[in-house]
Write a structure and sequence with these properties.
The protein has helices at residues 10-26, 36-41, 43-67, 74-107, 113-123, 133-156, 161-174, 182-203. By secondary structure, it is mainly alpha-helical. It has one domain.
């Protein structure tokens, strides 16, 4: 199995297995405010949540690259291009709609409730339907393409059907958004797919 063969370093395995698991757990705690008062109250966690998530997104892109590191072909090339687009656009969306929104809401904690409502109305649509949301569309779309291409490449290299299905699901689930349950299901599926490859590589002799 050329995907997670025994020569993979400890750091590579940590990225491949630890990153999606960390993100799957993190997304369970994504803040979800229903009104201005609740959003202001959650502002600190909203800010720090996305500060934590941003480097994990970068590591997730690295994990997706490592998934096909030992493979070649058109599907691998498509997957790597998709990974690059995902890393750029999804990180940009996360910074604008997550970190920037959290920063604005944090700074609104010292103003009056009426002013807080105005600030909330200004930023509440940033993670949703807005010009910034186009970054998420491109980034998430690239994630789906990269995973489908990686799944095809790995399947052709001998990966199991369950690994193939889990990688496809990892792409599809993120279309529902990165907060729970979409993000948790997406990154958990990726974790299970890499775990499946890990067990397969240990039980089968490595092939070139």
């Amino acid at each position: 199995m050329p995907a997670l063969v025994p020569h993979k370093s400890l750091w590579s395995r940590l990225v491949l297995l630890g990153t999606p698991l960390a993100l799957a757990v993190l997304e369970v705690f994504h803040p979800d405010a229903g009104d201005a008062a609740e959003a202001i109250d959650q502002a600190d966690w909203f800010f720090w949540f996305h500060m934590i998530q941003l480097p994990l997104v970068g590591l997730m892109a690295l994990a997706l690259h490592l998934l096909t590191e030992d493979l070649e072909g058109t599907a691998v090339t498509v997957s790597r291009w998709g990974t690059g687009v995902f890393a750029i656009f999804f990180s940009a969306y996360d910074a604008a709609a997550g970190i920037a929104t959290g920063f604005v809401l944090r700074n609104a904690q010292s103003i009056s409730p009426e002013e807080q409502s105005v600030v909330y109305d200004m930023v509440k649509d940033m993670p949703g339907v807005s010009a910034i949301f186009s970054l998420s569309i491109v980034g998430t779309g690239a994630w789906v393409v990269a995973l489908i291409a990686a799944a095809i490449a790995l399947r052709r290299a001998g990966a199991s059907r369950i690994t193939f299905v889990l990688l496809i699901l990892a792409g599809v689930f993120l279309l529902a958004g990165h907060p729970f349950p979409g993000g948790t299901l997406a990154f958990a599926s990726f974790f299970l797919a890499t775990l499946s490859l890990e067990f397969t590589s240990r039980s089968s002799p490595a092939t070139a």
